[in-house]
Amino acid sequence: MTINVIEIIDEYTIIVNIGSDGGLQKGDKLRIIEQGEPIQNLDGIEIGTVDIIKAEVEATVIYPSFSICQKLRHTLVNILDPLADLKHQSTRAEKLSVNQADISHRKIPSAKPIAVGDIVIRL
């Protein structure tokens, strides 16, 4: 079964076409993606796509055949350290030593806004 965004209620809330009949439970995580171009292995067999993650959401209200989902931020409050929310780890990509002739220059899809019909993956 393909799971999709079937309605956008507002900037905080979407509806997806899976519910308790499909095994979804309150709190389950879902990922909304923009599907990219197919990838082939060295034998020419398609093995997947390069997808962009638009958002990760959580099922908040479950019905039999659909669910309401929202992007929820769960934060730990450390009452002993009032600046705890200001501490973040920075991550960045570093250049690899690669064979320049093997670079494919594949176009990676850019993250567009969430739209009705977007593909949803259960995590």
Explain the overall architecture.
This protein is an all-beta fold and 123 residues long. It has no helices and 8 strands. The strands form 2 sheets. The protein has a 6-stranded antiparallel beta barrel. A hairpin with a 5-residue loop joins strand 4 and strand 5. 12% of the residues are buried.
Give a concise summary.
The chain is an all-beta fold.
Number of strands: 8
pLDDT averaged over residues: 84
Low-confidence spans: none
Shape category? extended
* String of helices and strands: EEEEEEEE
Report the total helices.
0
Biggest sheet details: 6 strands, antiparallel, barrel
The strand line-up of the biggest sheet is 1-2-7-6-3-8
List the helices and strands and how they pair.
Blueprint: E1 3-10, E2 13-16, E3 29-34, E4 38-40, E5 46-49, E6 52-62, E7 67-70, E8 119-122
Antiparallel strand pairs: 1-2, 1-8, 2-7, 3-6, 3-8, 4-5, 6-7
Task: Give keywords.
mainly beta; 6-stranded antiparallel barrel; 123 residues; single chain; two-stranded antiparallel sheet
